[in-house]
């Protein structure tokens, strides 16, 4: 008896489903892609319970002929390619003929479709891979497919599913990418009774961006348009000042297909070069069109990854095209820049409003006027923004002079803004004075070991050695010495540590320090982020931030602790929100620590800043008073030391 046999179709499909149908979002992806391939101009997606209960997709595409309905559910059944030559010229999203049979192997599927305009069509029902109903029935032109009880016959996969919110997050993320890749299709997404996305299908990408990321974001976008012999690039990238703390805002599309590609992401990031702060990412939606023979889409079961045959040409082309747009933008004077902090939309439905079409060459006279007016309004709204730089400098000087005034309450702060600079920015006030730090010197060897272990931030450390300042190197490192040897101190890391400990203590009683804002800060999120955030608002209260839902995608900060780093409040709360959204298990200690790190990064001096001798000494004093003066909050070393013996060895004075 032969031992090897060919598996029957049903098992083969279940195996394929393991790859193709990873989670509800994969079903949505496959079905919506089928609708797009069928030429639909309207696609409605309705999911229940994160898609695990039901996924229903209705389109007005070509429909399926009655006799093809059963065939469509066979493995490798497709209308999109015929021979292996076609495989290298793919113009459709699907072509593997795997989606329908895979889905039908792990769920209950009902298909209603018509390819004619006479109101008749066919219905079929498949359960666990078996055809249970097939009948002619009235149906409008197009396809309506419903997938129920996903993974009902694969309990192991079902168990692996995360929360409904997580599954919904994947679905909406995918739907956003589809909407961004196809602004010409009217797309709706509903979850249970809530509408999460609605686009108009009028081809205006900027309006889709507004529907997903909010109108403020859309106003901060610059158009990109470029082509060469092989590629045609189009889309939008955000102004360098409009950034996010993660890469999720970057969507790359090749010939109508949303893909993930490291090289393209890097090219986009490089185009911004030094224009972006560290760890900040742009918002970008970019499509490259190229001849289908230049891209291999048959490298990934879900076709999320592709290979380019001319990647050496593609990446520099993308980078340079974006860079050109950004460079031109930087040359436009500040006063005519768009009002990024302008009015908000409280609706997540794509609206019929008009964005001035920004041209990279310049702005029209009327636009400039409108923008100047908006800029003027902005200046009024933030009375001290003009004096920011001066104030920052004064704040810094005062901090390092060590003469810290006592923090007045909010009302007085409005009147005498100059008085509060110190505490907000550097946070030395209220920090215990250095104690017994001169009583014990630390062995450089020990300090080095401490540096290597990124020890718990709050474990007690041996006291910091007494040091005498020698100077500053390249505006970045302080050089100091004592009897034991030579020390290099990263001034930014040191400052971050000092600030971190200050803020960590402050976050211990944030609520008492929370002050009502005269002008509330508004923040916008994607519809699915907004839905999740609504359930997590109580976490913000724990750290003194009163955030309220303001309708649709918009939230409003009513109050926050007065000691938040000045001028950075909005970005800070945005980053806190991104953390809160991304974290599966939030606890107060982690939230307090994360918030302190974010505050300290924002408030700290950067490298390449010359310090006076007094400032440098103050910094060393404050560092010495820290509980953990050896590593910055990110775990990087603050101090590197060479013992006198090390130096002697280096110079071969001893052997
Ligand atoms: P593929 O998309 O790779 O061809 P699928 O299993 O997803 O494979 O679909 C099989 C076939 O069913 C498609 O080739 C197409 O002819 C037909 N089909 C599926 N969904 C639709 C739809 N929404 N509208 C029209 N035809 C469809
Ligand atoms: Mg398909």
TrEMBL record:
Q: What does this protein do?
A: This protein is involved in the repair of mismatches in DNA. It is required for dam-dependent methyl-directed DNA mismatch repair. May act as a 'molecular matchmaker', a protein that promotes the formation of a stable complex between two or more DNA-binding proteins in an ATP-dependent manner without itself being part of a final effector complex.
Cite the Gene3D superfamilies for this sequence: 3.30.230.10, Histidine kinase-like ATPase, C-terminal domain (3.30.565.10), MutL, C-terminal domain, dimerisation subdomain (3.30.1540.20), MutL, C-terminal domain, regulatory subdomain (3.30.1370.100)
Q: Where does the chain cross the membrane?
A: none
Compositional bias (Low complexity) spans? 364-378
Report the residue ranges that make up the DNA mismatch repair protein S5 domain in this protein: 209-327
Family the entry assigns: Belongs to the DNA mismatch repair MutL/HexB family.
Query: Domain MutL C-terminal dimerisation: where?
Result: 469-611
Q: Which organism is it from?
A: Paenibacillus chibensis
Bias kind Basic and acidic residues: ranges: 386-396
Say if the entry is tagged with keyword DNA damage: yes
Report residue spans for region: Disordered.
Answer: 356-442
Q: Name one GO molecular function term.
A: endonuclease activity
Q: Which HAMAP family match?
A: DNA_mis_repair
Name the SMART domains on file. DNA_mis_repair, MutL_C
Q: What is the name of the gene encoding this protein? A: mutL
Specify the protein name: DNA mismatch repair protein MutL
Q: Which UniProt keywords apply?
A: DNA damage, DNA repair, Endonuclease, Hydrolase, Nuclease
Classification via InterPro entries: DNA_mismatch_repair_CS, DNA_mismatch_repair_MutL, DNA_mismatch_S5_2-like, HATPase_C_sf, MutL/Mlh/PMS, MutL/Mlh/Pms-like, MutL_C, MutL_C_dimsub
> Which Pfam families has this protein been placed in?
DNA_mis_repair, HATPase_c_3, MutL_C
């Amino acid at each position: 008896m032969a031992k090897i046999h060919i598996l029957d179709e049903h098992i083969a499909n279940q195996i394929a489903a393991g790859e193709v149908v990873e989670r509800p979002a994969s079903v949505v992806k496959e079905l919506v892609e089928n609708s797009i391939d069928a030429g639909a101009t309207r696609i409605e997606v309705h999911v229940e319970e994160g898609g695990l209960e039901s996924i229903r997709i209705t389109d007005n595409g070509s429909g399926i002929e009655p006799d093809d309905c059963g065939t469509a559910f066979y493995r490798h059944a497709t209308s999109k390619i015929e021979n292996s030559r076609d495989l290298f010229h793919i113009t459709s999203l699907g072509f593997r003929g795997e989606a329908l049979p895979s889905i039908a192997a792990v769920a209950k599927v009902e298909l209603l479709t018509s390819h004619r305009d006479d109101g008749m069509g066919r219905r079929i029902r498949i359960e666990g891979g078996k055809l249970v109903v097939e009948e002619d029935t009235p149906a409008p032109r197009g396809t309506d497919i419903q997938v129920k009880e996903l993974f009902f016959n694969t309990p192991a996969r079902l168990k692996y599913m995360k929360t409904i919110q997580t599954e919904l997050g994947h679905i909406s993320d995918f739907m956003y990418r589809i909407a961004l890749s196809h602004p010409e299709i009217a797309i709706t997404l509903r979850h249970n009774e809530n509408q999460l996305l609605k686009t108009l299908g009028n081809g205006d990408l900027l309006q889709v961006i507004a529907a997903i990321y909010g109108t403020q974001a859309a106003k901060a976008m610059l158009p990109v348009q470029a082509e060469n012999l092989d590629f045609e690039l189009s889309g939008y990238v955000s102004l360098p000042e409009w950034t996010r703390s993660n890469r999720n805002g970057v969507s790359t599309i090749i010939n109508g297909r949303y893909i993930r590609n490291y090289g393209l992401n890097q090219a986009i990031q490089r185009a911004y070069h030094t224009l972006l702060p560290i760890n900040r990412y742009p918002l970008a939606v970019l499509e490259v069109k190229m001849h289908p023979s230049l891209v291999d889409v048959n490298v990934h079961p879900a076709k999320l990854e592709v290979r380019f045959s001319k990647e050496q040409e593609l990446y520099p082309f993308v980078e340079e095209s974006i860079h050109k747009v950004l460079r031109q933008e930087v040359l436009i004077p500040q006063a005519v820049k768009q009002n990024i902090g302008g009015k908000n939309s409280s609706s997540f439905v794509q609206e019929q409003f008009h964005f001035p079409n920004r041209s990279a060459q310049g702005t029209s006279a009327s636009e400039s006027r409108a923008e100047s007016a908006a800029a003027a309004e902005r200046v009024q709204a933030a009375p001290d923004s003009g004096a920011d730089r001066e104030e920052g400098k004064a704040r810094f000087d005062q901090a390092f002079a060590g003469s810290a005034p006592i923090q007045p309450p909010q009302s007085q702060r409005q009147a005498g803004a100059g008085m509060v600079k110190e505490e907000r920015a550097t946070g030395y006030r209220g920090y215990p004075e250095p104690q017994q730090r001169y009583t014990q010197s630390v062995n450089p060897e020990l300090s080095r070991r401490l540096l290597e272990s990124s020890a718990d931030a709050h474990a007690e450390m041996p006291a910091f050695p007494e040091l005498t300042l020698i100077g500053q190197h390249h505006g970045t490192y302080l050089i100091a010495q004592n009897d034991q040897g030579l020390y290099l101190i990263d001034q930014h890391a040191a400052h971050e540590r000092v600030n971190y400990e200050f803020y960590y203590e402050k976050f211990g009683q944030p609520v008492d320090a929370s002050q009502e804002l005269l002008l509330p800060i508004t923040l916008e999120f994607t519809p699915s982020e907004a839905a999740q955030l609504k359930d997590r608002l109580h976490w913000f209260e724990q750290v003194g931030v009163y955030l309220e839902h303001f309708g649709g995608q918009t939230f409003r900060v009513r109050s926050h602790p007065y000691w938040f780093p000045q001028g950075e409040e909005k970005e800070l709360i945005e980053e806190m929100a991104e953390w809160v959204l991304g974290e599966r298990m939030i606890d107060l200690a982690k939230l307090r620590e994360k918030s302190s790190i974010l505050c300290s990064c924002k408030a700290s001096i950067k490298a390449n800043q010359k310090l006076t001798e007094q400032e440098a000494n103050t910094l060393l004093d404050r560092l010495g008073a820290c509980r953990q003066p050896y590593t910055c909050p990110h775990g990087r070393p603050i101090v590197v030391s060479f013992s006198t013996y090390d130096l002697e060895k280096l110079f071969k004075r001893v052997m």
